[in-house]
Design a protein that fits this description.
There is one protein chain. This protein is α+β, with helices and mostly antiparallel strands. 33% of the residues lie in helices and 30% in strands. The chain contains four helices and six strands. A hairpin with a 2-residue loop joins strand 4 and strand 5. Helix 3 packs across helix 4.
């Protein structure tokens, strides 16, 4: 198992054992598990990721395809946008979501707020400047 997959597996186990809470670098931050199907394989994957809750709509969250500042988008982003649906584990609840890829000023404002709250996201944007714009997805309870 690769180091990233091993880390994901440990995070998923801890998340589920502690009603959506984990320690380490993600202690105290909003974290969800996003379920998505491989667009080619059809295999189900689960990916832990930080999210930003919508200001007024509890059924909307935003996730960020940073891939740690890598020059390419993560597979989970391509999987979710290919089918437009997925599932989210948030705390002890799992529910279906629709997926919307944000653009323009809407995307920029959401990303800026996440970077304000968590400065590492500003670093990811600097790393990808001129290479790609980090996508922001809106996940809305279906």
């Amino acid at each position: 198992m690769s180091e990233a997959l091993d880390w994901n597996a440990k995070t998923i186990t801890e998340f589920r054992a502690n009603e959506g809470r984990v320690g380490g670098v993600f202690e105290g931050v909003p974290l969800v598990l996003v379920h998505h199907r491989g667009r080619k394989s059809g295999q189900e994957y689960v990916t832990p990721m930080m999210y930003l809750p919508h200001d007024t709509e509890p059924d909307i969250i935003y996730v960020f395809a940073t891939k740690g500042g890598a020059p390419t988008n993560p597979n989970w982003y391509r999987n979710l946008t290919a089918v437009g649906v997925g599932n989210v584990e948030r705390g002890t609840e799992t529910y279906p979501v629709t997926v919307r890829d944000l653009t323009g000023a809407e995307r920029d404002g959401i990303y800026a707020e996440q970077a304000r709250r968590y400065p590492g996201f500003a670093g990811y944007a600097r790393q990808t400047a001129g290479v790609r714009t980090i996508p922001v997805l809106e996940l809305r309870r279906a």
